Amino acid sequence: MELSIYQVDAFANAVFQGNPAAVVPLDAWLPDAVLQNIATENNLSETAYFVPEGEGYHLRWFTPAMEVRLCGHATLASAHVLFAHLGYNKASISFNTLGGNLLVRKVADQYVMDFPTDEPQPFHVLRNLEETLGVQILEMAKGTDDYLAMIESEEMLMALRPNFRMLSELKTRGLIVTAPGTSTDIATRCFFPSFGIDEDPVTGSAHTLLTPFWAKKLGKTSISAIQGGARKGQLHCELKGDRVELMGKAQTYLIGKIWV
């Protein structure tokens, strides 16, 4: 079977920035084992698949190790493929996903994703996690999928060299480490070793937790954000009640064919 595949740099102002995602449009679902094998073969943090469903699409995401509940950058990448390459011409795209109904619209050269918020729950500081990171954690919270740890500065954030084996033992999808930004409101790095991703360059789903967390601290609902270590991407976050709008750009890196 021949399938089209697109590789898109999401939350990127140019190629080689942001977070690369593979997107494979389908007419009908293939067996889950095939979807997982393709994602493992791609060896990107996420491979997205979508199938037409009603007026929108059913969207799923796979890491090299497993299917996930919510993924922002591969949603943005999927919308980019539809708008830029597959002739989609409506005002917005509706995606039915494990994480709920997600809407994406195109505004000039950017995409705006409408996601449900992940309200942070206060959580005690894990001292063994401080030892793993090698920095003081000022505050912790827990979301649906992840722990969130706030540290003092972006400089300390960029210097982190986590022990991924120890992080893989956390009883969550992973760890979000965040600090006040220098050129943006906030800066973040995300680590998901138990899901086969030591560090994710830009994680849209993490910002559904970060946005309400930082909105309370900053006293505003419009937040500029940067994420990543060696590879970075930028996005803008708007808190709107129980929803978060995430805005960013996408760049097509590759269009090809795969045979399965």
Automatic annotation (TrEMBL):
MF term (GO), any: isomerase activity
The name this protein goes by in its record: Phenazine biosynthesis protein PhzF family
Active site: 46
Species whose genome carries this gene: Haliscomenobacter hydrossis (strain ATCC 27775 / DSM 1100 / LMG 10767 / O)
InterPro entries on file: Phenazine_PhzF-like (IPR003719)
GO cellular component, one term: cytoplasm
Keywords: Isomerase
Family per similarity comment: Belongs to the PhzF family.
PANTHER family: PHENAZINE BIOSYNTHESIS PROTEIN, PHENAZINE BIOSYNTHESIS-LIKE DOMAIN-CONTAINING PROTEIN
